[in-house]
Design a protein that fits this description.
6-carboxy-5,6,7,8-tetrahydropterin synthase, Tetrahydropterin Synthase, Chain A, alpha+beta, metal-binding, about 120 residues, 2 helices, EC 4.-.-.-, 6-PTP_synth/QueD_sf
């Protein structure tokens, strides 16, 4: 199996309405996103073209989250729920008979991140 990964960054604001602490107040992050696809190469020798992966993420994730107030998209926008939201949007666009979305990794800060993948 081959694992193909592309990284992205985006800036967004949120507040955690069900949390009691300083993160319940409006604040922002520069998020780092890593998307990994697993599978076997096609006739061209690629699991997924990096350009295709870039466009899928740009149109279906970054277009909605970059410079956005994430609470308008996700009710309780923790890193966990943002990562799952991204995964759920991408899997239907990426998965086919020879490849599937493996995982989404989302950094909220340079030292804090969440990994989301679906178990078989």
């Amino acid at each position: 199996m081959f694992y193909i990964t592309k990284e992205f960054t985006f800036d967004a604001a949120h507040n955690l309405v069900k949390y009691h602490g300083k993160c319940e107040k409006l604040h922002g992050h520069t998020y780092r996103l890593r998307v990994t696809v697993v599978g076997e190469p096609n006739d061209e020798g690629m699991v997924i073209d990096f350009l295709e992966l870039k466009e899928v993420v740009k149109e279906n994730v970054l277009k909605h989250l970059d410079h956005a107030y994430i609470n308008e998209i996700i009710e309780q926008p923790t890193a966990e729920y943002i990562a799952k939201w991204i995964y759920d949007r991408l899997k239907k666009l990426i998965n086919n008979e020879r490849r599937k979305l493996h995982e989404v990794v989302l950094w909220e800060t340079p030292t804090s991140f969440v990994r989301y993948l679906e178990e078989k």
